Structures are given as C-alpha cells and as structure tokens.
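During data preparation, we tokenized the protein backbone, and the record follows.
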Amino acid sequence: MGTVGLSFGSATSGTGFNVTTTVASILAIEGAVETPWKAQLASLQAQDTALTTLGTGLSALAAALSTLTSFDGSLASKLGSSSDTNVLTLSAAGPSAVAGSHTVTVTSLASTSSVYSDNVVNKSDLLTGTLSVQVGSETAKSIAIPSGGETLLALAQQINSGAYGVQASVVTSTSGQRLSLVSQTSGAAGQLTLGGTVSDGSTGVNFTQGTSGADAQLTVDGLPTTSASNTVTSAIPGVTFQLLSSAPGTTVQVQITNDTSSVETAVQAVVTAYNTVASAISAQEGKDATGAAEPLYGNPTLALIQNQLSSALLGGAKSGSISSITQLGITAGTDGTLTLDASTLGSVLNSNFNDVAGFLQNSGSFGQTFTTAVNSLGSTNTYGAVRLALTENSTKETDINADITSEDARIAAEKTRLTAELNTANEELQAIPQQLAEQNEIYAAITGYGGTNG
C-alpha cells in the first residue's frame, strides 16, 4: 500500500493543510482493493450481455423450428381451388385436410325460412292479439301483444328482445309496412310455422310464407349429401366451401394441395435464425477493436453451444428418401452459417412431401432431435446451458457486490474518522501562531523584552 504525506508550510505559519484532499488521497489507496472486484464484475456483466444475446437467438430458432415440427404448423397448411367459382368457392383448407382431388355437384342451394305479414297502412296503428312462432320441430312459442295494443315496429322490437328463434324487421313501402320474420336457423330445420291471431283494429293481419327452409342438396365424390347451410364444413374433412349457385348438370373439381410456399418460408426462417446464433458465436471467438478478448472467448458454454448445434445438424432418423438436410437444399459454410437453395427445397417438396414431413416431425427425426438440442441450450430451459451460465454469473455478481458494499461501508466509516481527526490536527496547526504570540506577550510582560512594544 502507498503512503500519503501531509502538505503544509512552516509549522508556525498557521496555514495548516487541506483536510478534504488528504482524506481523499488516503481513502483512494484503501479503495484500490475494490479495483479487481469491479473489473471482475464488469467482465461478468459483459458475459451476461453476450449470453443473453445467444439465449434470445436460440429462443428465436426454437420458435422458427416449431413452425415446421408442430403437427398444425406450416407442413399442415393446405391450399384449395375450385374449377368453377360461379358454383362454389373454397373458404378454408385446414390442417386436417388431405391433399387430393374431389368432385362436387350442387343440385340445389340451402334456403332460410321467412314469412311476412299483410300490409299495415298506418304505421301508428295499434295491433292486438297473440302470435305464436314455431321453428322446425321445436315447441311453438307464444308472443302476447300488450292489452293496449302496439305498433308493428314495437312488435318487431318485442320479438327481437326475446328468444323466439327469428329475426324481426319492418319493411316499409309506399303503400305501408309489413312485418318480416326470418328464421335464425338455416335449412329445413329452421322452417317457420306461425299461429295465433293478430288484428289491426277490425281487420285481421295474416302471414304468408316468403321462403321455405330447405337443405342444400349436393354430391361429393359421387355420394349424395345435404347441408343446412350454403357454407359446407363437413363434406370434405378439413375443408370449408361456399355454395354459390345450383348446377345439377355441372361437376366442379375441388383440388386440395400442400402449401409448399409456406413450408419454404418456414425453412428459410429456420436458416436465418440459425445463422443469427452462428454469427453471435463467431463474434465471441476473437478480440474486439481494442485488442481485448471478447467476453465469452474461451468460455466452455460457448464451445458447448457450438458443438451441440453442429452435431444436431447431422442427427435425426431417415424418413423415406430423406436422410439429411442437404436434400432439403440446406448446406453449411466454412463460417458455420447455413445457406438454403430454394429450388432444391421446392423440388423435394413437390416430389416427396410426406418424406419431408416425416424427416421434420416423426419421433426421433431430424426436426425433433434438432429441436431438443436447441431447447436444451437456451435461457428459457431451467437446465439450459445459457440459463445455467447466467445463473452462475449472477451468484458471483451477488457475492462481489456484497464485498464492494461492505468495503464501501468500511471506507465511509474510515472517512468520517479521518476527517474528524485531521480537522482537529489542522485546527491545532492553525492555532500555533496565536499561541506563540500569547507566549511572547507573557515573556515581554515578565522581562520587559519583546512583545508588541519591545
């Protein structure tokens, strides 16, 4: 440890010394013990930043992989087309749909039952009576008009506020207005039957069938089927299509295909995510611009991640004709990054789609083993390499911070003690001239020599 001297003039000058500067110099020497601690703390925090970057990259890679390895991901995505969009259009082809071709003939469309009332000339007329509504085979429900009567509009509002299975509206024309009731259930099961007696003063108000409820009639791959709605969801598993017109003599071809474009996009996302991790690893393998080693240079966690990812690229069981990622158009460069040949991938998807799916999704496949490897390394896994390294660093940082806090407290106490002692010493030095003057005055008074008059 170094030494600190007191800098002041002649002991009898009364100038003393700078207490603050002196205390700071002494404590700077004592505080030097924290220098290696703080350097180690900064090193650990730099490692944390690099490890967190790797953890984020591995999480992104895991998410990109899940799009390919999950059974409802991009490999399950389907596309559909109709040979005659005037007759039917496809709304959706879900993960459960199977690629293939189907023939559909639409004999008739589904319809929704409706009824309408006689014309009521004056909209202010008060209707009286009781109306009952039956939807299909359900129990009829009675709608009691208040004893004082109500307008056609009020009756429509009363119906809509209840649970009668119909939607009521008032249709106005130049000759008056009518009450329209439309079943809320499409097809034959929603056929409306009205009962009761409604009067407009002394005139009875009758209801007429507008549209009868009927199911759509169609054949799918030669098999007759019906649908209560023109939106057909169960005729072809996983496929929803919309019937637009009846065409009894027309056969419509419905084609379901694998969405290879989505798969290509997903594979490219995996390659991009992998390259982000590979680049982050590469960035830690040398020195920075100042010549200092990167935070994770020589770190065993970095080597573990690199080795396991490289090994995982070569792992996984064969699926049919697919046994390696190179057959998917993926190649590894000398810098550790991957490159995707989209044309190669597109070709193998068109020729061996099921084998590709198996290579990515089967138990023990490349996709599953690679996903397991990535998940075992990241920061979201309790026992992941990155998570464990961050936890270890955190423990060290906590201990170092505790040492620094303890040393800071000791130095603060020492500062208080030194400041008090040196202030006292400084006051004594500054008082010496006055003390000497007083001694001279005493001496002069006794001897007659010296003093302010001698």
Remarks:
- The chain has a mean pLDDT of 90.
- The longest strand covers residues 100-108.
